[in-house]
Design brief:
With 279 residues, this protein is mostly helical. The protein is built from 10 helices and no strands. Helix 3 packs across helix 4 and helix 9 crosses helix 10. The chain is globular and about 60 Å long. The mean pLDDT is 86.
Length: 279
């Protein structure tokens, strides 16, 4: 993909995912009501077939396949993925920031529903609306991710999104009194929008600074590191929520999300406007 289209392409992919997250639950409820739950599951299974057919339309030139027996062992490929990330400051910064954000945002998401329902006494219907607003924020973030990157550059865009994420998370423990619902809505919107803008730009930066032959290994390694922070985050969130209380834990989480900002600020990513394309 040409360099100028990398961010745009990733933005469109995130937009399609956000639309699916908004439309999916609504359509599911209507289909279950009209056709019954078993038929809804049949339609869901059929949707995977449609996805497979869509892949047949993809037209892209691929390199010649490696002859059998010439593939390096899986352990060598894993080691190479880690080595590349450790040696390259940009990839190291992205891997660290993504892992930090995933860890603390998982703690927040683990406690979110409990806090909103049990302590703020928000109804299930209103909670659904608030969560839906987060998906709308994600869609808007996907639509403007390219413009944000062009406005100040990919590096500053990533720094901006970490600040937005921290502000959105801060509104959750601050939501009290007559402003509880507006603050929850704004907070969820900011978190949804910032997460999508961050994902689009960090993925684009990775793709533009990683040699093509290493794309798969680097992507798998960063996904392993960032995704691997989710289970301990969920576990720690439950423990802290039990020991310290939900609101106190949420305040601590907000403060710790700032570590991701500091991590990027102290890296070479902060000044990146238009990274050099690595073949």
């Amino acid at each position: 993909m040409p360099e100028g289209h990398v961010v745009e392409g990733n933005s469109k992919l995130e937009a399609s995912q956000a639309v699916a997250e908004i439309a999916g639950p609504s359509l599911a409820g209507a289909i279950v009501q009209w056709l019954s739950a078993p038929l809804a599951l049949v339609l869901d299974a059929a949707s995977f077939l449609v996805s497979a057919l869509c892949l047949l339309w993809v037209r892209a030139r691929e390199g010649a396949p490696v002859a059998p027996g010439k593939h390096p062992s899986i352990w060598k490929q894993i080691a190479e993925g880690f080595r590349v990330i450790v040696e390259r400051p940009v990839l190291r910064a992205i891997a660290g920031c993504s892992s930090i954000l995933n860890f603390f945002e998982t703690i927040l998401s683990t406690l979110y529903t409990l806090y909103v329902v049990n302590e703020l006494h928000i109804s299930a219907a209103l909670l659904g609306v608030i969560l839906g607003v987060g998906s709308v924020g994600g869609l808007l973030g996907a639509l403007i991710a390219t413009r944000v990157a062009r406005w100040k550059g990919i590096g500053p865009a990533l720094l901006l999104t970490t600040v937005m994420s921290m502000v959105g998370a801060l509104l959750l423990p601050l939501a009290q009194g007559p402003m509880v619902v507006p603050l929850l809505i704004v907070g969820r919107f900011l978190m949804g929008m910032s997460a999508t803008i961050y994902n689009v730009n960090q993925l684009s930066l990775r793709q533009m600074t990683t040699p093509t032959v290493l794309q798969g290994r680097v992507n798998a390694t960063i996904r392993f590191l960032a995704g691997g922070s989710v289970p301990p985050g969920a576990l720690l969130g439950g423990l802290l929520g039990t020991w310290l209380g939900l609101r106190t834990t949420l305040i601590l989480v907000v403060a710790r999300i700032g570590i991701a900002f500091v991590w990027l600020l102290c890296s070479s990513v902060r000044g990146m406007v238009k990274p050099e394309r690595t073949l």
